[in-house]
């Protein structure tokens, strides 16, 4: 399995696909929940906290993707990054789509009262941070040089 994380694809900064990493985290959490169910929240808390977190994750992801599209670069991993985008959400986080995915996964965990999904999301976020973002940052540094290093010095990786 480690070969998947270390393989190189010419002209691509992204491996593996982040939605698949977060999806795997959710599935691991659901598997653990099936083995050892943990219920912590009332139905009211599930609705009032989980629903808004899911919506927040979706809205943030759409806003970040829209900002990339406005600058003529793609949020999709099968297209290489063509320009730096230090505007909108990207002025506050270098990875707002990953932040949005994590928030959405936590929202799902809360909405369905699946504590283990929070743990799976935490593991997925660690993989995103250490594997995916590390590859992306190396690619962006090589592609944009000093401009990317300046951006990286001004804007945090997460929030």
Keywords, please?
single chain, 159 residues, mainly alpha, 6 helices, 67% helix, elongated, disordered N terminus
Structural commentary:
- The protein has 159 residues and is mainly α.
- It contains 6 helices and no strands.
- The protein has helices at residues 2-6, 18-35, 43-70, 96-111, 115-144, 146-154.
- The longest helix has 30 residues, at 115-144.
- The chain is elongated and about 50 Å long.
- The two termini are 30 Å apart.
Cα distance, first to last residue?
30 Å
Low-confidence spans: 1-11
How would you state the average pLDDT, rounded? 90
Large-scale geometry = elongated
H and E order: HHHHHH
The largest β sheet comes out as: none
Total DSSP E strands: 0
Number of helices: 6
Beta content comes to: under 5%
Secondary structure class reads mainly alpha
| Share of helical residues | 55-70%
Measured on Cα atoms, how large is the radius of gyration? 17 Å
